[in-house]
Amino acid sequence: MPYSFQPLVRRADAFAAEGRIADAVTGYRQSIRVEENPYAYMKLGVILLQNAEARGAAAELERGFAVDASLGGALTTGEAAYGRSLLAYAYTRSGRYPEAKEQARKALALQPGQREAAELLRRLP
Fold first, then answer.
1. Of 13, 73, 90, 106, which one has the fewest beta carbons inside 10 Å?
2. What per-residue confidence (pLDDT) applies to 4?
């Protein structure tokens, strides 16, 4: 299905699960070329965070939220809250504390039980 991002994201997910990170990154980028979607951007952000590339992760997560907004909110509330929490963490790792606090608060507004965001917010200067 060359005109839908979904099979490409699933394939990239399988690569990530197998530890084939370069193939996963390629797959997520390919899915974005086929059809812009917030999921691939979010998953790229996760991979970059796992590889200690906080600035790149923040950029991918920001793009994911921009695409989500342009689509009228494709992400579920839980997905958006988790993504905001990840973005807060990426900002923290980049030394961008005011932005990190803002994202953690947004995560908590979406999902008050978001433990990671609450913990991060508590620790931020």
1. 73
2. 85
Q: Which of 45, 38, 34, 43 is nearest to 8 (CA)?
A: 34
Lookup: tokens for 32: 């974005």
CA angle 95, 26, 53 (to 5 degrees): 15
Instruction: Look up the pTM and report it.
Output: 0.91
The CA-atom distances, in angstroms, between 103 and each of 80, 85, 93, 96 are: 11, 6, 13, 11
Residue 95 region by backbone torsions, left for phi larger than 0, else alpha for psi between -120 and 50, else beta: left
> Mean pLDDT, to the nearest integer, of 92-109?
98
pLDDT tens, position by position, 86-97 = 999 999 999 999
